[in-house]
């Protein structure tokens, strides 16, 4: 009696939801919340969404798990705490409080994973620099209504608070000028 053994080759293609857009502002004001959004989509036949996780550096700060109750969970961190989150099958948005340390660069990662049979994971990371940006244009005072060629002027340019501080440059007829401060 002859026994024929046939081995089949099974190929499992592991697919995960694709992150279509990760929205993390390039700069964030430490006196305002930063709004972060992770957009994702799945192809037909992909396993259902298991979870969406947000990380600040290597620390998990927020999780959305549609199959669990409660569906969202925040994690305590000393830097960039989550104040609120809103998620569904296609987008997960969070708002974070930024540290009061200027010129600090924070990395935020969105991680999307699928359910069984394989827990496939995709992730993207973007950086945010904490900085106070100018809210208004600089104010220049002391500008005379008319001036003579070669006449000295005393002008004052003032900006609102910014960190790092604003770098003020003077231009006359489109050319940069050296200024005595």
Structural features, described:
By secondary structure, the chain is mostly beta strands. It has a domain of 113 residues: Immunoglobulin-like. It is 0% helix and 44% strand. The chain contains no helices and 14 strands. A 6-stranded mixed β-sheet has the order 2-10-9-4-5-6, with no helix packed on it. It is elongated. The N terminus is likely disordered. Keywords: Signal.
Largest sheet: 6 strands, mixed
Give Rg in angstroms.
27 Å
Strand order in space, largest sheet:
2-10-9-4-5-6
The top-level CATH class of the domain at 18-130 is Mainly Beta
- Number of helical stretches of at least 4 residues: 0
SSE pattern, N- to C-terminal: EEEEEEEEEEEEEE
**Structural classification:** mainly beta
Helix proportion: under 10%
Keywords: Signal
Signal peptide: 1-16
Domain Ig-like: 28-129, 138-181
InterPro entries: Ig-like_dom
Task: Provide keyphrases for this structure.
disordered N terminus; Immunoglobulin-like; 0% helix; elongated; 44% strand; signal; 6-stranded mixed beta sheet; 4-stranded antiparallel beta sheet
SSE diagram, text form:
Layout: E1 18-23, E2 27-28, E3 33-41, E4 49-56, E5 59-64, E6 72-74, E7 81-87, E8 91-97, E9 105-114, E10 121-130, E11 139-141, E12 156-158, E13 170-172, E14 175-177
Q: What is this structure, in a nutshell?
A:
The protein is mainly beta and 181 residues long. It contains no helices and 14 strands. It is elongated.
